[in-house]
């Protein structure tokens, strides 16, 4: 049961990392194409900047979820590290719970916001709610990650 | 009342070890609820989105990638060889090599951590073999890596410039002098310490022919030439130059040095993902808090207080340096920049300080925090890279910290010198 749950997280992490790595490579490639068009062909492309920006938001948001899963976000742990193990665990649970509250706002108010934006994108022929819904979607993934973390802390294993 | 709750909640979450990005976001949420209930919470997702929705910020993932690619492609090793050919024969040779290699590495990478990971793994063991104390080698490597985010390109400068709405190119040009000054002061310190302790008094030899070393070095130096000349000459934006740097590293890694294959390359892109997430999250969360602060007119009120006590430029600069150094000891570099820039920069501008000058002071001062105990990010990475105890490195880091504070003082109080390069290039 536990190994199934752990592997579900692993699968999500793997998919997200590969997807984001692809987006990063695409961002660099598209930016280079834009430079090439501007200088070599003398014909600046209009759509590249907006598209790469949305790709970056994707990497930023889902990369955040990956970093959360790996506990890579920087925090000030000097004081917590001095606590006994139980105190450390309580601190971690409280801190994951507050991240969870934030993720919930990203999900709830994010969906409200995304469905409320009626405009279309600046140049790309897509409605704005598509890029906007990256915020609540990534919030949902992070909420899932955080609940898993709290569950593990309460059960007492650190994996 | 709301302000008190925000400050208390901020402090409690920080002490509990909650990641700083989320602390910033939650403090913004509490302030929003305090001022207008839950009706405005839609601003949170909106700010997260618009905080990341910036072409300038895209330079950050690209420079992260370029730094990692240089390490993976072995370009870092070529830089060490070149530095060795340049200064390896001086007394305390490898120490100087370390500093010069960091200056060269700094022209390609925008973060100190990549420099420690790349140069530290090569140079700390070889310094140790040549008779340097390990703790000294670690302290020198950590301190020299701070040149990385001072000399362009620089991730903290991109963050600061985009937060403050000033020109990235002007800040980059302004970073050249402080970076070289840091390098020169640290070389003097290393020379003095090496002579006193008798480190490496004999002439250093290096492997390989001199012409090969120089040829490889010149190929490696093509990258900074593209980045710096491209940005300062107005050929590309910082973001485009960063993308070109990524391509350059991939091409010479794959075809010239033949060190990168598809598998390694993909690994590098994958490892940049979570680093990108961490940096961009900080930037966008800081956006929430600074939006709230701006709507409560916090910067204007603080400026009013400082101006009413008759704050002069000099007093304000001294106060700023002190504040930045103390905050730098405890807080993450990017987070501090995100929080402090919108408060302090407008005050500085009102006092008649050039915004680019002040932004440079902020970056250099907060960079020093990377190597100060108790929370110096670069010190921790050095510990991990070299498997050396934190306390031992801290014991040896003081002379270099002193150099950096001296450099900071020169940069702060001689604005003509600091701003000479951006002025000459017509960027101010």
Task: For the structure shown, list the relevant keywords.
heterodimer; A: 159 residues; mainly alpha; 5 helices; elongated; B: 428 residues; 21 helices; 78% helix; globular
Estimated structural class of chain B: mainly alpha
β-strand number of chain B = 0
Number of E strands of chain A: 0
Largest β sheet strand count, sense and barrel closure of chain A? none
Outline the low-pLDDT stretches of chain B: none
| Unreliable runs of chain A | none
Shape of chain B: globular
How far apart, in Å, are the first and last alpha carbons of chain A?
14 Å
Number of helices of chain A: 5
Hey, roughly how much beta strand do the residues of chain B contain?
under 5%
Instruction: Assign an overall shape of chain A.
Output: elongated
Q: What characterizes the major β-sheet of chain B?
A: none
Radius of gyration of chain A: 20 Å
Task: Give the number of helices of chain B.
Answer: 21
What oligomeric assembly is this protein in? Answer: heterodimer
**Could you tell me the mean pLDDT of chain B?**
87
Q: What is the CA–CA distance across the termini of chain B? A: 42 Å
H/E series of chain A = HHHHH
Biggest chain-to-chain interface with counts? A-B, 62 and 56 residues
Draw up the topology in text.
The complex is a heterodimer of chains A (159) and B (428).
Chain A: H1 2-39, H2 48-69, H3 85-116, H4 129-132, H5 134-155
Chain B: H1 2-15, H2 20-36, H3 43-52, H4 59-72, H5 75-87, H6 93-106, H7 112-129, H8 134-145, H9 155-164, H10 168-197, H11 210-232, H12 238-256, H13 262-295, H14 298-308, H15 313-330, H16 333-350, H17 355-368, H18 377-386, H19 390-413, H20 415-418, H21 420-424
């Amino acid at each position: 049961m536990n190994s199934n749950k752990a592997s579900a997280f692993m699968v999500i992490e793997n998919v997200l990392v590969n997807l984001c790595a692809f987006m990063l490579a695409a961002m660099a490639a598209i930016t280079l194409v834009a430079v090439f068009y501007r200088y070599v062909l003398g014909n600046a492309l209009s759509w590249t900047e907006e598209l790469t920006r949305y790709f970056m938001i994707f990497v930023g948001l889902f990369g955040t979820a990956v970093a959360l899963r790996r506990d890579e976000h920087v925090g000030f742990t000097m004081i917590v590290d001095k606590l006994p193990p139980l105190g450390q665990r309580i601190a971690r649970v409280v801190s994951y719970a507050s991240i969870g509250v934030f993720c919930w706002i990203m999900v709830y108010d994010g969906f409200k916001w995304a469905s409320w934006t009626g405009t279309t994108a600046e140049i790309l022929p897509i409605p704005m709610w598509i890029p906007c819904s990256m915020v609540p979607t990534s919030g949902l993934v992070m909420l899932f990650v955080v609940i898993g973390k709290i569950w593990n802390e309460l059960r007492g294993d650190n994996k | 009342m709301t302000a008190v709750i925000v400050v208390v909640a901020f402090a409690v979450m920080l002490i509990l070890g909650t990641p700083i990005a989320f602390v910033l976001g939650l403090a913004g949420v509490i302030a929003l609820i305090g001022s207008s209930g839950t009706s405005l919470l839609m601003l949170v997702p909106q700010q997260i989105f618009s905080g990341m929705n910036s072409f300038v910020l895209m330079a950050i993932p690209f420079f992260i990638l370029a730094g990692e690619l240089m390490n993976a492609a072995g370009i870092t090793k070529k830089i060490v060889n070149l530095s060795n050919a340049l200064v390896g024969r001086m007394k305390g040779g490898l120490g100087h090599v370390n500093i010069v290699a960091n200056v060269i590495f700094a022209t390609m990478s925008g973060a100190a951590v990549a420099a420690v990971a790349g140069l530290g793994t090569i140079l700390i063991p070889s310094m140790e073999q040549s008779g340097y104390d390990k703790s000294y080698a670690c302290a020198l490597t950590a301190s020299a890596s701070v040149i990385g985010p001072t000399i362009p390109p620089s991730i903290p400068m991109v963050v600061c410039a985009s937060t403050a709405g000033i020109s990235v190119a002007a800040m980059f040009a302004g970073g050249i002098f402080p970076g070289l000054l840091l390098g020169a002061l640290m070389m003097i310190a290393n020379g003095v310490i090496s002579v006193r302790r008798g480190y490496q008094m004999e002439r250093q030899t290096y492997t390989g022919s001199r012409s090969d070393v120089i040829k490889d070095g010149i190929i490696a130096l093509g990258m900074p030439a593209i980045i710096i000349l491209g940005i300062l000459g107005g050929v590309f934006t910082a973001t485009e130059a960063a993308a070109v740097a990524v391509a350059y590293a991939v091409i010479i890694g794959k075809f010239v040095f033949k060190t990168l294959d598809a598998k390694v390359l993909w690994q590098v892109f994958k490892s940049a993902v979570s680093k990108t997430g961490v940096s961009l999250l900080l930037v966008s969360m800081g956006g929430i808090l600074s939006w709230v602060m701006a709507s409560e007119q916090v910067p204007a009120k603080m400026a009013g207080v400082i101006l009413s006590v008759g704050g002069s430029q000099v007093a304000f600069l001294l106060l700023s340096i002190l504040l930045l150094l103390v905050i730098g000891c405890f807080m993450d570099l990017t987070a501090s920049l995100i929080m402090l820039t919108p408060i302090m920069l407008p005050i500085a501008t009102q006092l008649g300080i050039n915004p680019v000058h002040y932004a440079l002071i902020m970056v250099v001062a907060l960079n020093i925090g990377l190597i100060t105990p108790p929370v110096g990010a670069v010190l921790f990475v050095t510990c991990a890279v070299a498997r050396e105890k934190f306390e031992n490195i801290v014991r040896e880091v003081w002379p270099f910290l002193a150099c950096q504070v001296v450099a900071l003082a020169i940069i702060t109080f001689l604005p003509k010198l600091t701003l000479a390069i951006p002025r000459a290039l017509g960027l101010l």
